[in-house]
Amino acid sequence: MEIIAKIPYVIVNRKIEDNTQFHKEEEHKITLSCERVVTSFDSFLLEEVLDISFRFFSSEEMGLLYLHTTKGMYSYTVKTSPQHFIEQFKQMK
Fold it and tell me: How high is the pLDDT of residue 59?
């Protein structure tokens, strides 16, 4: 499986102990190949991915990457611009 593009995303886990909230970020990757889009928890055939979009939610390049699939919409928090990843996906479609 040849990897065409990949982008890191983060999952923030929140935990409360003794009235104190703790945040822990876990970094994962979304990879695009000729056949599928794979995350740490899900795998979609390229035919199942209808579109990929991105929305900023801060003044930085941090935002939400949305995978629009036949199984529903999945969102991923990314800290870097996904422009290259999205362009590669659109060329594949």
Answer: 66
